[in-house]
C-alpha cells in the first residue's frame, strides 16, 4: 500500500465508532461525535508541526485571528475527496468581523499541500454562493500548491467554477484575497480577480509558472521571492494591494479594511457618528503646500488633515506611488480619496498610476463610496516607453472610470492641473459634482513656460534679449489664463476656497450630495479600454 492509501485507511478507521459492537446510546454517540470533530479540527500533529516550521499558521489558527471569537460556523467539515481526509484541504464557512457577517474559506496546506480538487472546489463554491445570496463579503485565505494533478480536468473545472462565481459576484459583494503561502498556476487568478489582495512577506508567493518552469523554458534563473514574492507584487506588478510582515498583522489589516466596506452593493458603508467636520478649519493646510508650482510636498500630509483623526488606509502603498489611493472617513462617513503625489515623479500620471487609480475609482463606485480627488498634476509622463506601452489606452481607463462613476464626487484643485491630466482627474467636464480650488490653483493646457515657448517661438528667436521677453510673456500668460479665478469665472470651478477650509468644504459638499441619484443608459455594459 502507498503512504496515501495507508493514511486513507487510518482516517477511515478513526471515523468508526469506538463502541461499534457495544450497545448504542445517545450519550455514547454524542461523545464519539465530539471526539471525531476534535480529531478533524486538530489535524495531524506532524503536519501541523511542519506548517509551523515553515513560519505559517494553520487554516484554523488563521480563522481564529480573522473572525470574532466563537463566531465561526463551518460547513462541510466531513467532506472528503481524493485525499481521503476530512475537509479535503479547505476549511469553509462563515463568521463575523466586528459583528458583521462574512463568508470565508481557508486552504489547509497540511492536507495535500492545500491542492484543489473537485470536492475542495465544491466547498469554496458553496460559500461563495451563500455569500452572494446573503449579501456578505467573501474572504479567501490562500495557501495552495495549485490544481490536484491526480484529478486532472476535474480540478481545472473546479477552478473555472470559482472564477465564474468571482466575476458574477464582482460589484455585488466585496471580495478579499489573502495570500499566506504559495498560490501557483491557475490558483493565482483567484487573487487577481478579487477586489483587494493581501500578501505576507517571506511566506507568500504567487505566479503562473514557477522558477523551475521559467528556467526550463527561458534559461532564466530566478528565486521564488523574486518571481512572485510579496514585495514584487506589492511594488512592481501591482497585484498585491497590501503587504504585511507577518500573518497576525495581515489578518488585522483585513479586519480594518472590512470596517470601511459595505457588506454589499445595496448597503452603505458602516458610518460612525458625525464629528463636526463641516466647521473644522485646519490652519496647517495653509502651510503644507508650497505656492511655487515646482516645489514638492507629500500629498499624504494634506490627506491626513482632511480626513477624520488623520486616519486612512492606503491601497497599493508601494506601487505607482505618484498617485495615492486611500479609504478614510470624513465626518464619520467612508470616502475614497485619489490624490496626485508631488514627491514621486512630480505627481505625473503614467501607465501604472492610471491603472491603480482607475481600479480604485471603479471599486468605490460599485460599492457606493463617495470620491474625493485631490489634484496637483503637471500632466502625463512623456517618453517613448510610456507611449509605446499604451499610455493613451491606460490613461483612458482612469478617464472611463471617472466618467462612469455615479457616486458623489468632489474635486479639490490644490495647485497645478495641466492638459489632459486635468481632465482625467475628475474635472467638471467629466462629471464631478463639486469642484473646489485653492488660490494656488493653475488650470491650463500646459505650464506657462511651455505655452510661451510654443506660442511665441518666432518672436523669441528674433529677440535681442530672449530671456527678458520670455519672462514678460510668461507673466502675461499667467495673468490672463492661469490666474486662480479664471476657471471659476467660466463656471468650471464652483468655488475658490481658503486652504484651511478644505476639510469643512469637503464635508459640507458630501452632505449636500448624500442623496444623489443618477440614471444611467440602458445597456448590457460599456466597453472599458482594458
UniProtKB/TrEMBL annotation:
GO BP terms in the entry: fatty acid biosynthetic process
Swiss-Prot/TrEMBL keywords: Transferase
SUPFAM superfamilies for the chain: ClpP/crotonase
Any one Pfam family match given in the protein's UniProt record, by short name: Carboxyl_trans
Region of interest: Disordered: 20-45
GO cellular component annotations of the record: acetyl-CoA carboxylase complex
Domain CoA carboxyltransferase N-terminal: from-to ranges: 24-273
Ranges where the CoA carboxyltransferase C-terminal domain occurs: 281-524
Matches recorded under InterPro entries: AccD/PCCB, AcCoA_carboxyl_beta, Acetyl_CoA_COase_Trfase_b_su, ClpP/crotonase-like_dom_sf, COA_CT_C, COA_CT_N
Record organism: Saccharothrix saharensis
Gene3D superfamilies: 2-enoyl-CoA Hydratase, Chain A, domain 1
Top-level taxon of the source organism: Bacteria
Protein's name according to its UniProt entry: Acetyl-CoA carboxylase carboxyltransferase component
Gene Ontology MF annotations: acetyl-CoA carboxylase activity; propionyl-CoA carboxylase activity; transferase activity
